[in-house]
Amino acid sequence: MPRSPRHTAPAEHVTHGQWPDVTLAPDAPLTAHYGVALARRLAAVMKDRSLSDRAVARLSGMSHNTIGRIARGEVLPDLGTVARLEVALQTSLWPSALWHTFTPDASGGTPPQP
């Protein structure tokens, strides 16, 4: 369930592509961009380690349905969920440098769209 009207599921903002390799609508909220980046990272880690949703669920103590919904962009995970996943997988999932994409450049121009 969204935390506010601006916090909708990332998958709701897809204009084209197959999740998680998608393009988001120009007006997609920041949270959708972070959700896509996190889903891409989670998918890459799971693929590299040959982990299923159920395997990640066992490692993290979460349900496989939750893992699947995050991976498919159906929900925005909260900070506690991201932390549990990172600890369980022993890697960073949070898109820590994504904020640069939304920061105006030094000339005062508008930030580029991801």
Automatic annotation (TrEMBL):
Pfam families reported for this sequence: HTH_31
InterPro entries in the record: Cro/C1-type_HTH, Lambda_DNA-bd_dom_sf
Domain HTH cro/C1-type as annotated: residue spans: 42-98
Region (Disordered): 1-22
Name assigned to this protein: Helix-turn-helix domain-containing protein
Source lineage: Bacteria, Bacillati, Actinomycetota, Actinomycetes, Kitasatosporales
